[in-house]
Amino acid sequence: MDPLALSALVEQLGGELLGSGDVLIAGLAPLESATSKDISFLSNPKYQQQLSQSSAGCVIVGPSMKVLAAARGPCIVTPNPYLYFARLTQLWRRRVARDVSRIPVIHPSALVDPEARIASSARIGPLCVVEAGATVGEGTVLKSRVTVGEDCHIGDRCIVHSGVVIGADGFGFAPDGGRWEKIEQLGAVRIGNDVEIGANTCIDRGALNDTIIEDGVKLDNLIQIGHNVRIGANTAMAGCVGVAGSATIGPHCTVGGGAIILGHLTLAAGVHISAATVVSKSIHKPGNYTGIFPLDENANWERNAASLKQLHSLRDRIKTLEKENKP
Fold it and tell me: How confident is the model at residue 99 (pLDDT cuts 50, 70, 90)?
């Protein structure tokens, strides 16, 4: 792939270019490892020391870093460097992309039921399984070994990475003495447009109603979405999140890696859950929420944990003392 001049890059993506537009860029790289042929970005001011030390041919920065970046060399100034860099990666991907017209819509090793509906511009990768009644929308790509269960729907322009299972049975069993009676899962999964699902993530079909993933949702690898969950538009979840059945998560939420959301809870729009947090009650107000016991040396952690067990009794004693000393 031929290098791209900074002037051509800015012409396509915008931004304020400081320095020579004739500088040629051959790759994208982090500040610390970039060479004079690479372009990098700085979005967090706490890494500004790396900026001054970087050998990058050009750095994408925000207005607050403009003077410092220009003193170092060529730079592109934009209100949101991280977003600009994201669009730059998309541009780069288009420049190196293979000619998809030569790629079969359905790989020869994939198994697609005759009753499934695959859009003409979709791509079904090696060893995928698409069962009866399933639909895959325009421009959607299923990477290798994706399974789409019967009657499940995937919208347009989605990316489903390797190993994803959409529409396995939800975890539903009724106790019967010392055994379990299976509850048949009669719903499906409906996934909106512009959704991306990471490798080996599982989305269970609903018990009665469908499990719903709305437009623009981004799911990382190894996420478990239980039956009848609803995830609102443009919500993003990091790896190893678990969402139990019938939880409803609003739009524009974020959930950090390893967090757990218990079943039948509701999270309002704009709720942000920190990594490893266990959400055990509904959250009706937007904001940032964390439920992590701080890391410490083990001996200190055990002492603090023992103290926590006494908080309830200490609270009762304080209430008693307050009553006794009330004027």
Answer: low
Kindly report, residue by residue over 109-137, the tens digit of the pLDDT: 999 999 999 999 999 999 999 999 999 99
Same domain for 80 and 116, yes or no, is no
Catalytic residue among 107, 153, 161, 227: 227
Confirm whether 272 is a catalytic residue: no
Distance CA 194, CA 76 (A): 29
Report the Cα 277 to chain-centroid distance in Å: 16
Is 242 in the same domain as 315? no
Q: Which residue has the tokens 């599982």?
A: 202
Give the tokens for residue 209. Answer: 């109603």
Q: Which domain holds residue 88?
A: 4-96
CA distances from 202 to 226, 249, 307 (A): 8, 17, 39
What six digits make up the tokens of 86?
């994201």
